[in-house]
Known about the structure:
It is built from 18 helices and 17 strands. The protein has helices spanning 12-22, 76-79, 110-129, 143-152, 157-168, 172-189, 228-245, 266-279, 300-308, 323-329, 335-347, 366-379, 396-399, 401-404, 413-425, 456-463, 496-501, 503-514, and strands at 2-6, 28-29, 38-46, 64-72, 198-204, 206-207, 219-220, 251-258, 287-293, 313-316, 353-359, 383-388, 429-434, 445-449, 467-471, 476-481, 486-491. By secondary structure, it is of the alpha/beta class. α1 (12-22) packs parallel to α3 and α7 (228-245) runs parallel beside α8.
Amino acid sequence: MIGLLIQDNAYEQDIRELLMSFYPGETYAHEIKDGVDFYVQTRLIQKEEDGCAASEEDAAGQEWNVGIALWEQIKEGEAAGCSPYFPVPEGLEDFHLASSSRGYSDLSDHSETKNVVKQLFYRMLTERTGHELPWGSLTGIRPTKIALSRLEEGWKEEEIRSFMKKNYLASDEKIDLSIEIAAREKMLLEPLDYDRGYSLYVGIPFCPTTCLYCSFTSYPISKWKGRTGLYLEALFKEMEYVADKMKGRPLDTIYFGGGTPTALPAEDIDAILTKLDQLFDTENALEFTVEAGRPDSITEEKLRVLRDHGITRISINPQTMNQKTLDLIGRRHTVEMVKEKFLMARELGFDNINMDLIIGLPEEGLEDVRTTMEEVKALAPDSVTVHSLAIKRAARLNTMKEVYKDLKITNTQEMIDLTAQYAREMGLEPYYLYRQKNMAGNFENVGYAAPGKACIYNVLIMEEQQTIIGCGAGTTTKRLFPEENRIERAENVKDVEQYISRIDEMIERKRRLLSEKTIAI
Length: 521
């Protein structure tokens, strides 16, 4: 157990995320008590003593101390009588930085203060654990956003490289990857109309089964057999509202995800795609992706439905090409089935097929990753998305820890590098990247694609450069206000029954968000 004693809660999430990067799966205490391995304390205090006060000539007229302390296990009695600033038990390390005209950081700025706190904390944790993180003190899920925003402002690559090294202590390899991807994203996004254009996400919250690591909104399709029409009825009502509200605006990308859309019967898939064609200008969209996802949900009939509706990109996701792992994680399909369904899609004319893989699955090591990449290379997909396993709160790996506590979960830089090597050998270039909390090895997810085969929607959802409207249970609508550089959200409920019964409320949430009168809170 780790103790967190934090004066300013504004930094608690950042500190907690760094702790989780070094100590995944640990629990936290917010008071001094027995049974805690070590404590973390931060304080942000305006100070006018010990020679730290700002001079009268300073414009700000104030200075700040940022203190962060990390110490070994202490008992309640030993902590009594500590100074009002920092307890000073044996082994305490603390740091103080002032903001003034003498060249220190301006710690009256929240963002800069956060970076200083994280840097100090990161250095202490690296000293305590003896290892560094590939992304340094950076815990955000969108590292490329840092590089992309600066490229758009006209920064040179060397300036961005220096900024990321100084502010986030990231490795050269990760900084280079961020800049390479940001440059590619910039080219992909340049033709889009951010002010008027939008993208559409249609969520299908059903799957054949729920995988061990999954935390997405999905329900076993078997429990909805014969009743999916109720979901479609509500979905169509929401889609009709969106089509009317966004009429006249260019629809750039469409993403049909979940769950597993192909878990639905072929007639339901056809009905949804027909409705989309009727309501929206799908013919002029830059791309239309459907997650075929689980090979055990794919049939020739369903693929023909997708082809007949002009779907430009599909994703067939094995996650791994090791049968023992597939059995363990509950995928309910075979390696041979992956190959069979992939080749079937090729024969039917699909020329942009993605494959999702997960690195760090239970009991897998470097040779298992090599086996997967060899099998994938032989199939020659048009894009490969490599995910590092992230165990979310709702996943069975987390909710049933005692059952799965003996499973070995490993992710290493060598494994990540191997996937990158294979992707480049296949002629695929990295084009988008994001990170998640609780990621094995503190790495990242990277999408690789052949030239001309990148998924623009994936870039848009990560870089938050466009309004994206979500329809369906568990989806999120993000409205972009370009002139104010801000985003506001409207969530749909996750539970399918609730979504159906409360569809008018979901539409009302969208109406408020998409109204021209929407203002910042």
